[in-house]
Each structure stands twice: as C-alpha cells, then as structure tokens.
Amino acid sequence: MSDLQDPEVVDLLQALIRNRCVNDGSPESGQETVSAEIIAGLAREGGAEVERFEPVPGRASVVARIEGSDPTAPSLCYLAHTDVVPVNEANWRHDPFGGELIEGEIWGRGAVDMLNLTASMSLAFARLARSGFAPKGSLVLAAVADEEALGSHGAGWLTEHAAAAVQADYVITESGGIPIDMPGGRLLPIPVGEKGSCWCRLRITGEAGHASQPLRTDNALVTAAEVVRRLAEFRSPAQIHDTWRSFVEAMGMPDEITAALLDPAAIDDLLEVLPDLGVARQAHACTHTTVAPTIVHGGTKINVIPDTVELDLDIRTLPGWGEAEVRELVMEAIGDLAPKVEIIEAHDDPSTTSSTDTPLWDAMSRQASKFHPDSRVVPFFMAGATDARFFRRKGSQAYGFGMFSNKITFGQFASMFHGDNERIDVESLAWSAAMFEGLARDFCS
Known about the structure:
Elements: H1 7-18, H2 33-45, E1 49-53, E2 61-66, E3 76-81, E4 101-102, E5 105-107, H3 115-130, E6 139-144, H4 155-161, H5 163-166, E7 170-173, E8 180-182, E9 185-194, E10 196-205, E11 209-210, H6 220-233, H7 242-251, H8 255-261, H9 267-273, H10 277-287, E12 290-298, E13 304-305, E14 308-317, H11 323-334, E15 341-349, E16 352-353, H12 359-371, E17 376-382, H13 388-392, E18 397-400, H14 410-416, E19 423-425, H15 426-444
Parallel strand pairs: 3-6, 3-7, 7-18, 9-17
Antiparallel strand pairs: 1-2, 2-6, 4-5, 5-19, 8-9, 9-16, 10-14, 10-15, 11-13, 12-14
Helix pairs in contact: 1-3, 2-3, 3-15, 9-10, 12-15
C-alpha cells in the first residue's frame, strides 16, 4: 500500500500527548480523565453507547460499544490505554509533551507506548459508528487508565467490577505488527503471550552502630550491595517455550543460529556475542526468568550504620513460574547470605498466552497482507506486561496488533518503549487507523 496520511488521527494523537497523563504509580497520578473524555466524545458523536468508570478521582476509563445483531457471533474489543510513563525532559531533543509534527513524525511521550494505537483505535471505532456500522458481533472500545502501573484503576478494576461492560471473546491491544525483515521474509510479529511479573521486596538486616567506627560492623547496606551484585550476575536457566520456538523457526536464520536459539544449553553463549545488543536483550528476556534490582531503601542518618535495608526487585517470569519458584530462585542467587535476607513482599502476576488457532488470527493475517504483501504474521512473546493479561484470565483470546510502515525499524521501535525521543511516523498512524476499521468490518460482520 502506498503512503497514506490521515490528519484526523494526527490531531488526536497530538491532543493525547499534550494532556500529559503521566502515571508514576501513585493513586493521584495519571489523571487520565481528560483523555478519556476526548475519546468518549468521539464515540458519542457517532451514536455509540458510552460508559464512564472512575474508581479513583481523575482516573477515568471509558467503554464504548456498537452492539452486535447476533449474540452468538464473536465479539471484539479494542483495548487502549491513555496513561504514559514519566520522562526525563533533559534527555529529549524535542518537548516530550509538545506533540510536534517534525519531518513526518509525531514526537512525544506515549507516541509509541501506546497513544499511537489509542488514537488509531479510537478514530477507527468513531468512524465505524458514524458510518452506521451494524456488526453481527459486538465491537467494544475500552480506553483505560493505569496500564503503566498495575492496572488496578483501569483494566484490572474493570474486569473485576464492570466485567459485563468490557467482556469480549477477542481482544486487541498494543505493540504488534511492526515489520521485521529476516532471511525467511518479512515478518509481522504479533504478541500472543507475555511474561508474568513477581515484584519482590527484600529486607536485609545487620546491626546498628556509630558510623565513625565502621571496623567489623554488620552494615546492612554493605550486605545489600553484595546481594545486588549476586543478583545481577545470576543467570537463570533458559526455557524454550512454544511461542519462542515458532518465532525463531519463522525467522529463517542460518541453521547453526536457529539451533543455538532453540537450545537451552547453547543460547546464553550465543547471546553474549550477538553484535545487536537490543536483539540479544530481547531474546534473553523471552527465554529466561529475569531479576533486576531497581530500588534501594535504607539508612536513617549519615553517622549511623544501617541495620535494615530494603531492596526492590523487578522479576519477570516465564510460563509455568509462580511465587514459589521465584522465592527459590532468589535464595539460590543470594547463596550463603540468605540468613540475612527475607522476602517481605511478593506480588505474583503469572504469565498468560493465547492461541493462534482462531478466526481473529486469520483476520489479522488478511489485514496484514493489504499493507505488507508477502508478509507473514508470526506469534511473538512479550517481555513486558500489558492489560491483555486481565482479559486472558477471563477467557478472552488477546493479541497485540497495529500496522506500521517501514519508516521506523523494529529495533528503534523497541528502544523507544519507556525510552527517550519517542516518535511515530504519520504513515503508521494512518495505516493503523485504516487497519482497525478494516479488521472490524472483516471480523465482526
């Protein structure tokens, strides 16, 4: 398909970026209501039913619906989020909340994660409503708050407290459909599953004392430093799951590379020497349960030897892992320091996966061929978490999907998630809006 531009979706993305719905994890952050109201207004203009949910003041989500005529036909939900992560403005080349159009790209926090698709989904839904679209299966648009924390004020809350409003047989959310050219041809990876998380807090103990006499003290901060070093150096065993195997086989790499990527005993050595660090990190995350120490809390006064330090760990788990396996892994990594360490908190959110043997997978493949002829959609496994997990646990089949041009590479796209200088090209915005409209007409009619 030739280059396509869509000023309406550009305007909507710019407005969402400029709303600065920054979610730092605190209950009062985000303030997504302002963006939710814009999206609700678009849906209402077309005559769609719209419901608003606000479990915490300022943290509204909206759900719009075009009711299907056949209750037995499969329903489809476009699941978007309106919040973004914090930003260090000093590291950006342009204003991260300016939403500027510069040389064919929209710049700003959320331009990749995921306000680009939020705008595209919302506009596609509004256009369908305006056109009088009368599907057999219901079409739902859920624009939710709080995805960038734990979803407890957004998708997580909705699936527990307003399940009937958002229930759908199939769900599409963020980050799929970015083209990647491999020896096996052009691939469009579609996330069908994602790692779980088991965020932990460790308490490391020592003995208080006067900091002017540090000799032979039991300094909890010094012990914590060694704990961090051991956790950083620890390597959990590789696990080759079905989604990773399908993706690697589709890449068509040389036989020796393919064999190493699918061999738990060989993959780590290969990843150490891969020249593309971004690819190595992605491959490692997809095949290992990972541990990243991220926050330290400790000390009371500069002249007091600390007797307690707390350490936060971001642990991302593979399919089949739970809290028990995570606790065992942490203690194995810590080794003989275990008597000084206690896991005082563990938030276990297990991995989820969907099937590719579905009519929606076939419909996505048909849409992909319109924009990238001779491409193939292939299953992909995400290292991070999305709101799809809440819907999978309620029985939905959920995927990540969009439609992107060749203007930004897969590696560049991946590096901008939670990174600096987020931007998206206007062709990808237009392609995604057109694809979401076409997909609904294909699948729901």
